[in-house]
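Usage

Read records sequentially. Each one opens with the input sequence:
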Amino acid sequence: MSDKLFRWFKIIYAIQARPGISAKELAERCEAEERTIYRDLRSLDLVAPITNEGYGKGYTFAGDFAMFPFNWTQQEALVFSMLPSFVDQSNMPPGFDTAYDKVMAAHFRQKKRDREILKHVTDIIQMGSPAYREDAPNYLYQVIQAIVEEKTITVVYHTQSRNQQTEREIDPYYLVPRDQRFYLIGYCHQAKDIRTFRLSRFRSMEMTSRTFERGDFNLKNYMKNTWSIERGEEQIHFKVKFSPDVARYIKEEEMFVRPRMKDLPDGSLLFEVTLNHDREFMNWVSQYGPDAEILAPVSYRERMKERLERWRKLYEGE
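and closes with the structure output:
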């Protein structure tokens, strides 16, 4: 087993150092028969994306695979760290201990470097905090770390709509910035479903040692037809006409959906988009005042008229 393990490492390093190396050359480097190398390559295909580009072109790695820097999962790192307990070290050739120590040292150096880079990035990112919380803790670094390491977190979360705090276990999938806030999308063990959490509403947070897998979760599908962060079950097709004064500004808006925009002869802009929720979009349209006219659905056109009437009465009351 030890001879095969060392030969596998030699094969991986040789392919990484010389993409296109042939089986014959690998056999010479490993001091083994070619048929042995072919067997090893078939076995290694389970752990490394080794590919052959065709007759006479030799072996290389598909994609960006490389042995260094390490891209181990937590499980892979644990398995490799336990390697000495599974092999008879008395039968190992000279150099096994030092080679093993170098590999593990490189792995831990890379992990430390990744943590330092992550900490530096999160220190640079400055987001606003609620005015009523002067010393609000910033859990951005810990959340990103949990996402990267695929670790479940326990949090105390404040639900604004019910004005209550609950303790939750969350598998953090993605961190999404919206409107000067960070939102965490992940699996909530209490709700047994995917949920969206606003980071500023975390009252405490700890990363556990339990790992998770995202499975087939797809963020793009989850956020489909979502204007910003609020999701619903409807399919509302909005048509809005923007005046020539603001048309060019609408075109440069950074949006999370893909609307249809058509220039009209008078310089105005016809804006169409299908959404699963209305509130955030209606608030966005409102900021353009008389430069934005809702054409459809008719029910939302009427809703906007009612809102404007309430505003008018409010100011007339003075």
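Summary fields computed downstream for this record:
- The chain has three domains: 2-108, 140-222, 236-316.
- The mean pLDDT is 83.
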